[in-house]
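Researcher: Please translate sequence to C-alpha cells.
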Amino acid sequence: MPVSPDTLLSGVGLGLRRELIPDLRQGIPDAIDFFELAPENWMELGGAWRKDMAWFAAQRPLVAHGLSLSLGGPAPLDTDYLKRIRRFLDEHHILLYTEHLSWCGDEGHLYDLLPIPLTHEAVRHVAGRIRQAQDILERRIAIENASYYVAPPGAEMTETQFIRAVLEEADCDLHLDVNNVYVNSVNHGFDPWTFIAALPPERVVYLHVAGHYTEPDGLIIDTHGADVIDPVWTLLDRTYAHLGLPPTLLERDFNIPPLADLVRELETIRALRAPYRSQAHALAA
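Model: Translation complete:
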C-alpha cells in the first residue's frame, strides 16, 4: 500500500543500505516499519538508484539522517546544500531530518564527527545555526548526541546541560542515540542512565541503537558494524520505560549480515517495546 504524505512515523526501522536492496525488493519484512537513509548518499543519484529510492519511499516512511551539515563548525552553513536537502525531503515525503550535534569541516570536509566545546558561546553559535537550518528546510530538525573520544578543553557545563541549552535556544528536537551514550559512558567514565535521565523527555522524537567494537585496551569505537550487546539492550529498555516509545532505528553501516540476522535484532527491539505499548493501551482504556 502506498505511503501517504501525512503518515506518522512510528515503530522500528532499519538503515537502507545498498547491499540489502536485492533482498528487500523481494519483500520487506513486517518487522521493518520505516527506513533511514543518509541524504548525501541518495539525493544526487539518477537511473536505477533513483527508481529504487522512489520504490522504497512508496513502501515505507523514510527518515533522513544527515552526515555533513557540520552544525557546530566554524564555516558558514552551506545554504545551497540545505535547499537541496529540502527539495529531497519534500520529493520523497520524508518525515524527519536529523543531524549530529558535532562538526565535521571548515574549509573542507574532515570525514569525522568532532565534539563541540561545552561553552555558553558554543550554545549560542550552534543554536543559531540550527535555527537557520530549520528556516531554510521549513521544518523542525532533531539533533543527535554524538560519540567522541577526546573531550574539548574549557568546559563550562556538563554535556547534558549543553544539549538541553541548545535544544531550548534553538527550539529543536532531540535524536537520542542510546549506543552513543553507552560508548561515551565507558570511554569517559560516567553512568549512562544518569545521562539519559538528565535529558528533556519531551524533546526526544527518535532513537538509535547499534553495535560497536571494543579495542584490546578497553576503548570502545562506535562502528555500527556489529550486533547490539546486552548492556545496550538493557539501556534501551530502561529508556523506553522513561520516555515512552519513540520510533527506533537499528543502525548497521558495515559488516552487513544477511537480512534475516538484522530482522532478529529488529524483533528484539519490538519485544522490548511490547510491554510499554500494552501499558499505554491499558491506560488509554
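Researcher: Any highlights?
Model: Residues 281-285 have pLDDT under 50 and may be disordered.
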